[in-house]
Write a structure and sequence with these properties.
Layout: H1 9-49, H2 71-113, H3 119-128, H4 133-146, H5 152-175, H6 180-188, H7 193-204, H8 206-222, H9 225-230, H10 238-247, H11 253-273, H12 275-287
Helix pairs in contact: 1-11, 2-5, 2-8, 2-10, 2-11, 3-5, 5-8, 6-7, 8-12
C-alpha cells in the first residue's frame, strides 16, 4: 500500500506567493503594453516634428532625428498652423464659456425639478448624440441667410449648440450629489438666490464645472466637419488648417508633427492638472447609477 504525500503548508504558501507575484507581473505587463500603444503615436509625432525634410523619407527610416531642427515649427506656424491655433482658441474658449454660463442654471433646474433618469435627461443627452452631418446643411443655409457664414460668431453658436447638452447632463448629475440641506440652510440665513449660487452651489460644483469645461473645450478644439462646411478663408480652425496641408501642397510630415504637438500640448497639460477633478466627477457619475 503506497502512501500519498501531501504538500507541506510551507510549500503551498510559497506556491501561492509565486502565483500572486506572476499575476501582479502579468497585470503590470498588460498596463505597460496598453500604455505603449497609446503613447507610441505621440512619440512618433514628436520625433517627426524635429526631423528635417531630408530624413523623413530615408530608407531605412530613422527613429531618432540625426540632425534635429526647429524649422518645422516656424514653417508650420507660418503657412497656417498659427492662424489655425489662434482661431481654434478663440472659438473653443468662447463656446466653452457660453456652455458653462448657460448650462449651469439649466443643470440646476434639471437636477432639482426632474428625476435622475427621466425622459427629460434622456432628451437633453440625445441632442448630443445627433450626428453632425444631420444639421450641418441646415446650419449652412441658415448662416448664409443671416450672414454668419465664415464668422467666429457662427462657429461659436454651432459649438455651443453641440456641447451644451453634454454640459447640462454632466453638471446635473454632479449637482444631484450636493445635499439640499446646504441650500435650505442658506435660505434660512436669508441668502438671496444669487448668493446661493455664488457662495454655495458654485464652490461645491467646481470639480464638475471643470470637467464639463475641459470636455467641451476638447470637443470644440477637435471638431472638423462644422468648421469645414461653415467657414471659408476668414476663419480657419486648427483641424481645417491641418487638412489644408494635404489639399494645397505636398504634405510635409515634419510640419504636421510640429503643429500637432503644439496643438495637443495645452490640452494634455490641462487634463493632467485637472485629472483629480475628472476622476472625482466620473466617480460621481458612476456612483449615481
Amino acid at each position: 500500500m503506497s502512501g500519498h504525500v501531501s504538500p507541506s503548508p510551507a510549500s503551498a504558501s510559497e506556491g501561492n506567493r509565486l502565483m500572486m507575484t506572476l499575476g501582479i507581473v502579468a497585470k503590470h505587463a498588460v498596463i505597460v503594453l496598453i500604455l505603449a500603444l497609446f503613447l507610441l503615436p505621440l512619440a512618433w509625432l514628436l520625433l517627426t516634428a524635429f526631423k528635417p525634410y531630408s530624413e523623413l523619407f530615408t530608407t531605412p527610416p530613422t527613429v531618432l532625428p540625426v540632425n534635429g531642427t526647429l524649422v518645422n515649427f516656424s514653417e508650420g506656424w507660418a503657412i497656417g498652423g498659427g492662424k489655425g491655433i489662434g482661431d481654434s482658441l478663440i472659438v473653443s474658449s468662447i463656446s466653452t464659456a457660453l456652455c458653462l454660463i448657460l448650462g449651469f442654471p439649466a443643470a440646476y433646474a434639471l437636477a432639482r425639478r426632474f428625476p435622475p433618469h427621466g425622459q427629460m435627461s434622456f432628451t437633453i443627452l440625445s441632442l448630443r448624440m445627433l450626428p453632425p452631418i444631420v444639421p450641418v446643411i441646415g446650419f449652412y443655409i441658415l448662416f448664409q441667410e443671416l450672414s454668419l457664414f465664415d464668422t467666429y460668431t457662427g462657429l461659436v453658436i454651432v459649438y455651443t449648440f453641440m456641447n451644451l447638452p453634454l454640459v447640462i447632463w454632466l453638471l446635473a448629475e454632479f449637482i444631484r450629489q450636493i445635499p439640499k440641506t446646504y441650500e435650505e440652510a442658506a435660505r434660512i440665513d436669508g441668502a438671496p438666490w444669487y448668493r446661493l449660487f455664488w457662495d454655495v452651489l458654485l464652490p461645491l460644483s467646481a470639480p464638475g464645472i471643470l470637467t464639463a469645461g475641459i470636455l467641451a473645450m476638447i470637443f470644440a478644439w477637435n471638431e472638423f466637419l462644422f468648421a469645414l462646411v461653415l467657414t471659408g478663408e476668414k476663419v480657419i480652425t486648427l483641424p481645417k488648417a491641418l487638412a489644408s496641408f494635404f489639399l494645397f501642397q505636398q504634405p510635409n510630415w515634419g510640419q504636421l508633427g510640429a503643429i500637432g504637438i503644439v496643438a495637443i500640448t495645452p490640452l494634455l497639460i490641462v487634463s493632467y492638472y485637472m485629472q483629480r477633478s475628472l476622476i472625482r466627477s466620473f466617480s460621481v457619475e458612476l456612483g449615481g447609477r
